[in-house]
Amino acid sequence: MKTLLSAKRQISIPKALCEELEMAPGSHVEWEIRDGLLIGTPLPKDAWKNLPKMFTREEAKRGWNAFLEMRREERARE
């Protein structure tokens, strides 16, 4: 499937992919570059519910960026 990058640097995700990945308007996607490829990973709908269990108090203060940093570290270990 191909999509077009708009003048505002926006990309539409095809409906079939959204349905397969259970993505809805407002879903978050984590972007990374791995081996020259742009990879978008949908984040869990209820990821915020796990924040207290996943972070120390200091990490929680850093907010959403701490969550994304942790996800990148997990992927680097894979």
**Biggest pleated sheet:** 2 strands, antiparallel
Instruction: For the record, give the distance between the C-alpha atoms at the N and C termini, rounded to a whole number.
Output: 27 Å
Strand order of the largest sheet: 1-2
In helices, the fraction of residues equals: 25-40%
Q: What is the alpha-carbon Rg in Å?
A: 15 Å
DSSP helical segment count: 4
| Outline | globular
Q: What structural category do the secondary elements indicate? A: alpha+beta
Per CATH, which architecture? Ribbon
Question: What does this molecule look like?
Answer:
It is a single chain. Helix content is 38%, strand content 15%. The chain is built from four helices and two strands; from the N terminus they run αββααα. The protein has a single domain, classed as Pemi-like Protein 1, Chain: D (Ribbon), CATH 2.10.260. A two-stranded antiparallel sheet has the order 1-2. The chain is of the alpha+beta class. The chain has helices at residues 15-20, 51-54, 57-62, 64-77, and strands at residues 29-34, 37-42. Strand 1 and strand 2 (37-42) form a beta hairpin.
